[in-house]
From TrEMBL:
Lineage: superkingdom: Bacteria
Keywords annotated in UniProt: Signal
Compartments, record wording: Cell envelope
Record family assignment: Belongs to the bacterial solute-binding protein 2 family.
Endpoints of the signal sequence: 1-32
Protein name, UniProt field: Sugar ABC transporter substrate-binding protein
Family matches, as PANTHER family: D-ALLOSE-BINDING PERIPLASMIC PROTEIN-RELATED
InterPro entries xref list: Peripla_BP_I, SBP_2_dom
GO molecular function ontology, one term from the record: carbohydrate binding
Chief place of localization: other
Native species: Cellulomonas cellasea
Domain Periplasmic binding protein: 44-305
Gene3D superfamilies: 3.40.50.2300
High-level lineage: Bacteria, Bacillati, Actinomycetota, Actinomycetes, Micrococcales
GO cellular component, one term: cell envelope
Amino acid sequence: MRTRRRPGPHPRHRWSRPLALGVACTLVAALAACSDGGEQDVTVGLITKQETNPFWVAMKNDALDAADDHDVDLVTATGSSDVDVESQVEAIRRMTADGVDGILVAPTDSRALVPAIEEARAAGVIVIAVDTPTDPTSAVDAVFATDNRRAGALVGGYAREKVDQLGITPRVALLDLAPGIASGELRREGFLSGFGIEEGDPVISGSVDTEGDEDLARVGMRELLAEDPGINVVYTVNEPAALGAIAVMRDAGIDMAGVVVVSVDGGCAAMKSAVRPGDLDATAQQYPENMAAQGVRQIAEAVRGGDRPSGYLDTGVTLVTRYPMPGVASENVPFGVRNCWG
């Protein structure tokens, strides 16, 4: 855990990336007094999942920038993986005991964190789930996240069109996140819907949990190919998993021109090394800056006498590909590079 104290105005101000304004937060008035007639001190906690995935690193850096911009103390904590529940529970309870005004948390388990979150809110802490909703969503004040089902549907619809264009009979591999994490479950549901199939469809060759980790994705992809060497459609829950799967397929001598690989994220590493050359056919780009910046800003405003955040804020998602499909709305790789993170 680390505390970032306010150093004064930050020299760098980023422009805001695409934000879906049509699904705005509903707001409930909440008053907070200012001390000595000036701006009230505000402390916000940010709890991410781990620090090896560029998405979480980018979110923390964006939160630090927003904290500087809004004169906020930021306390950060992170776990060891996307399934490290214990570290997040401990961080929520420690931040609550230390008297933070608000917490932004990306849940590693949408249900297991609820008791700790409820304790924090009972103590007067504003809690916003970022990236991953809680179950139930009412456990937090607000959710600021990608529409994960739509992200999955975007890449699923693209994959269906690409399969039809190639004229291949699909054999689908699903590289998922882990049980109990709503963002991963929603992306899988969206992909299946967008591709036009349901759970149990015979075109699904197999699925594995990767925890969003590149090395675990390599292991899982090898297992899936051993069971079905004819896999030709690969859905991955995020880009680290996609990079792992692509590496395994290349090592196996598979012609990537005959395989459709899709994912969700929009980070700079995959955009430049996989989407640009075409190994990753399409990705649904999400925007961690909008989650972090909006979260810090809205907590600060609520504590200083503004409206309390509530409801759901869609922080935006865009399909990016080198190979656009007729009838599928998308942006090109230069757009993806301009708006990537990490």
